[in-house]
Sequence to fold (205 residues):
Amino acid sequence: MEELAPGVFAGPRLPGANCYLIREGEVTVLVDAGMPGDHRRLADWLESEAIRLDVVLLTHGDVDHRGRAGELARMHGAEVWAAEGERPFLTGGLRPRRLLRRVMVHLIRPVPVDRWLTANDQVAGFTVWETPGHTLGHISLVRQEDRVVLAGDALVVGRQGPTLAARWVNEDQAAAAESGQRLCQIQPTLLLTGHGPPWRPEAGA
Ligand SMILES: [Zn+2]
Fold:
């Protein structure tokens, strides 16, 4: 298991979005859960690494991040945590703006969430930031002490470094731009996103 920063590990390679593991003391948090079929692959990987989850945290409700968070959590006796602002999307009550999500929301089942997070909640040494735009309730995790950022899809890492997700997948482009800018302003030492490799500014693009 690759440790990207103290207590922060890369998850297994999944066909959907990247996922990460945070371990702080006794607490182990999986950040994002891949596609709905990926929970078995994730479960196998966790077993092979002898990891027991306490929390499955979702940065947002997109299908390539929510996976089967509930099933995976249940296998581990863990809880699912997600953003309060994402509640309508995760529970199937939202009519998203983007067509892809609108179709998807009918096809995938709601996620059972145990704890709804809001700005400044603390998760294993990280602070919850509300970073809306890509989805309306998207959250990111920021560790102030070393400026490690888990940005979900608030930013993606391309060849030129961090950038916004494509306009056609953002629910609110202006909000997405503002959220992306706020995250970049703290000058992350390590930026971990749902799509693209880990990004460290000193390493360049
Ligand atoms: Zn997304």
Remarks:
- The first helix runs from residue 38 to 48.
- The mean pLDDT is 94.
